[in-house]
Amino acid sequence: MFDGLDCGSLMKIKTASLQNTARETLGLLEDLRAELAPSTMGTAQWRRINQLEDKVLALLALTQAS
């Protein structure tokens, strides 16, 4: 126990925190994508943003499955 919380409660708090962070990160990635000129579509920069988004979505899916 930690400050009166059992392990299950701590996991729920950690999961909620991770979900919030993932959603905030997705918002930041969307902002970055919006700042890019349309001519940058298909460039390495665009692909890196997409790769980051894929990884964050995978993490978010894991938190929702648990």
Describe this structure in words.
This protein has 66 residues and is mainly alpha-helical. It has one domain (7-65). The protein has 2 helices and no strands.
Content of β-strand: under 5%
> What is the count of β-strands?
0
Q: Biggest sheet: strands, sense, closure?
A: none
- So what's the overall shape? elongated
Could you give the distance between the termini?
20 Å
> Order of helices and strands, N to C?
HH
Average pLDDT over all residues: 88
By DSSP (H or I, 4+ residues per run), the number of helices equals 2
Radius of gyration from CA coordinates: 16 Å
Fraction in helix: over 70%
- SS-derived structural category: mainly alpha
Low-confidence stretches: none
Number of domains: 1
Please specify the SSE layout and strand pairing.
Elements: H1 7-35, H2 44-65
Helix pairs in contact: 1-2
Summarize the structure.
With 66 residues, this protein is mainly alpha-helical.
Features:
2 helices; 66 residues; mainly alpha; 0% strand
